[in-house]
Design brief:
Elements (H helix, E strand, L loop, with lengths): L1 H26 L11 H15 L2 E7 L4 H12 L1 H10 E7 L6 H10 L10 E5 L5 E6 L4 E2 L2 E2 L1 H10 L2 H4 L5
Parallel strand pairs: 1-2
Antiparallel strand pairs: 1-3, 3-4, 5-6
Helix pairs in contact: 4-6
Length: 170
């Protein structure tokens, strides 16, 4: 009888542990930064695409090492209003950069992006269709508590659409 009770208790504890791990894994945002690609080439490709589509480029600079970077990527993907504005107006890329592992490639990247990393991570760099930097956004100003503020995030994206920058009313 005691063995049976022990087995039932152990089974219940195991099931609770498995459920807790599953919930934790589902709450962890997916990794979005490709650490294997050349970030300078990635930006060039995004600019070419933006030119072809009449859009601007947004470089979300950071890395899979950065919880706030992953949180922002998850946030904008899961908010349909924000996601729609991005899809209509921007070529959105996740540009991998690690300040402690920058090397020559990282130095060249920061030079190209006007040392955007000085703001912290993630940092959002808006490029026009020619690849010129038109705005660098410290994402800390878009935060609210342990997430992001929808009103602030929407305002950022709306203010930097090609139409808004060119003064075209929509």
């Amino acid at each position: 009888m005691i063995k049976r009770i022990f087995c039932i208790v152990m089974l219940a504890v195991t099931l609770l542990a498995v459920n807790a791990v599953a919930q934790e894994q589902s709450a962890t945002p997916k990794k979005v930064y490709n650490e294997q690609i050349n970030p300078l080439e990635q930006i060039d490709q995004a600019i070419a695409q933006a030119q072809a589509e009449g859009k601007y480029v947004i470089c979300q600079v950071g890395g899979n090492w950065c919880p706030w970077c992953l949180k922002f990527a998850d946030y904008i993907t899961n908010d349909s209003t924000i996601n729609s504005i991005i899809e209509q107006n921007f070529v959105y890329i996740h540009v991998n950069y690690h300040p402690r592992k920058a090397g020559e490639m990282g130095k060249a990247l920061m030079k190209r992006l006007n040392n955007a990393g000085r703001f912290g991570f993630p940092v959002l760099v808006v490029l026009d269709e020619q690849g010129e930097i038109i705005h660098i956004q410290d994402s800390g100003y878009l935060e609210q508590d342990k997430s992001y503020d929808q009103k602030k995030v929407l305002s950022f994206f709306k203010n930097w659409t090609p139409a808004a920058v060119k003064g075209i009313k929509q």
